[in-house]
Amino acid sequence: xxxxxxxxxxxxxxxxxxxLACQNDDSLLRTxxxxxxxxxxxxxxxxxxxxxxxxxxxxxxxxxxxxxxxRSQGLSRELGLANLFISFSGYWPERGGKxxxxxxKDLEAPPTVERMAERKxxxxxxxxxxxxxxxxxxxxxxxxxxxxxxxxxxxxxxxxWICRExxxxxxxxxxxxxxxxxxxxxxxxxxxxxxxGEGGARNVARRDGMGVVMLDGVLxxxxxxxxxxxxxxxxxxxxxxxxxxxxxxxxxxFGPALPxxxxxxxxxxxxIYAAWTGSGMDAGLCPAGMYxxxxxxxxxxxxxxxxxxxxLEETQGLVxxxxxxxxxxxxxxxxxxxxxxxxxxxxxxxxALQEAVQSGTVEEDDPILLNITGGGVSRAKEExxxxxxxxxxxxxxxxxxxxSSSDSVRGDLGAEILEILKRGA
Length: 425
Description:
By secondary structure, this protein is an alpha/beta fold. Helices cover 35% and strands 18% of the residues. α5 packs across α7 (236-251) and α10 (324-338) packs across α11. The protein is globular and about 60 Å long.
């Protein structure tokens, strides 16, 4: 098994292996792996090939595909770049892409579900999502037959499809509100001792799972990239890339310099861009009218130690605010040049790369890793059988804002969910 410690970068103390927070400060905990040299486990499938750098005791059965990294030809020609590599998380059989939920959230869910199962305390996992994360967790939990509660904004229900029959041990709670309100409701529900929140950015399994993008990319490129591009909502994927890069530098074989993070958001719904640039951008009625509302998180882990701000500072990073028009143009350019459909969020990253090329921030020969965080949905819908998850309960945050209503969430709503899961068992 991969051996590791969980340490707080703030106080420096080692924490319990399943901890989500430090008792001494608010830092994001970080894993330290005993194995310092990245070695692929060829006897294991998908992302579990990176098992020595994942915080689990064993692979989760039936789950865990990895991204496909390849050297671009089409988009490289369009942008005039000689060393552009693409990490593609999605369904693309010709390139070996097997992520049937078509999102890099497939990297987060299996190690998080496995780490939860290893606690063996009987608690039920609660996950808040704008849609893509819920899809990945639903598929992983269904494969492993583990109870799961998904708390999703009503706008995200259309994204709740998976490519296997859903387990009866999944309860979907739809929220009349946005992703932040779904996170808040899930947090209050997790105060019930029968449930446990997966922790979001605070869960090292989620971040180290996403870090596989950088690991796979560097093994393909044979070195750390000079630049790394990704669209972000909470920014957790950027943190994951930074942390994975630190481990790769410690390995000693892939170069001494951290990749420069280029994180992209959808303007004007761009709180990380506003915080980093001091622009004071007004998010207005976000997430209404966004090119992809999965990229909007009102409370990203920005200023916390080990969070987005630290990652940007250490990598001399940049943040972009991409308009809907720029994203639509970038999506068309990518799909025509690479011959595969991508999710709208990924188009935001492509637009940021276009901007960086036009401004001279990246040069023709710079080694670049572009994270296409989701794609191949059109192919998947043509070739795979899909199953849709329906809402089991509906919650209105405006009616659940007082202290007494918090008790109701923990008690009454919790009891309803347990009854639904009991009927499905």
